[in-house]
Design goal:
The chain has 171 residues and is an all-beta fold. It has one domain: PCu(A)C copper chaperone (Immunoglobulin-like), CATH 2.60.40. It is 0% helix and 46% strand. It has strands at 33-36, 39-47, 55-64, 70-76, 80-91, 94-99, 103-105, 110-112, 119-125, 134-141, 145-154. Strands 1, 2, 3, 4, 5, 6, 7, 8, 9, 10 and 11 form an eleven-stranded mixed beta sheet that branches. The relative contact order is 0.24. The model is unreliable at 1-30 and 162-171 (pLDDT under 50). The chain binds copper (II) ion. Copper (II) ion binds next to strand 9. Copper (II) ion binds at residues 57, 86, 97, 119, 121.
């Protein structure tokens, strides 16, 4: 495991900022936000496992401040057989997961990994994902390099509409 470097940060509850200040140091209002170079990663989370579940999925919002696109090309963590990048496609009305070679982060844009779309797929868990714990995951980007992110494990009932930081009350 690498030590903390410019491209290799971890955040538990608050923002850590690298040498760049382009996003501004405005506040630490977001529960979990991580800035790594030109990328900002917001609210990384994984849904807790339900009994018998051997796979899991991780989600995060990735903002790119650079004028150049970047690309998430892999993810790694301990305690799983294998990690893949997936999307969900609709085939004749049936939602199917499909592995993708990478997830593009547009220039000056954002990509949101969320249920029903792109996700980080954890295959073959050696132990269930337990709510209220965190999983350290190393994301590897084509340009930004490796970024270490702590994914928060949310209860199985977690509403993905809560990406912006508050639980949604719609029912
Ligand atoms: Cu998947």
């Amino acid at each position: 495991m690498n030590n903390m470097t410019k491209k290799h940060l971890s955040a538990l509850a608050f923002t850590l900022v690298t040498g760049l200040t382009s996003f501004g140091m405005s506040s630490v209002a977001m529960a979990t936000e991580l800035v790594a170079g030109d990328l900002k990663l917001t609210a990384p989370w994984i849904r807790a496992s339900v009994p018998g579940q051997v796979n899991g999925a991780g989600y995060v919002q990735i903002n790119n401040q650079a004028a150049q696109a970047d690309r998430l090309i892999s993810a790694t963590t301990n305690g799983v057989n294998r990690v893949e990048l997936h999307t969900i496609i609709n085939e004749n009305g049936v939602a199917k997961m499909r592995e993708v070679p990478g997830i593009d982060v547009p220039a000056s844009g954002v990509v949101k990994l969320m249920p029903g779309g792109f996700h980080i797929m954890f295959l073959g868990l050696s132990a269930p994902f337990k709510a209220d714990t965190t999983v350290p995951v190393t994301l590897k980007f084509e340009k930004a390099g490796e970024v270490k992110v702590n994914f928060e494990i949310k209860p199985p009932t977690f509403n993905p509409g809560a990406m912006s930081g508050h639980d949604s009350h719609k029912h």
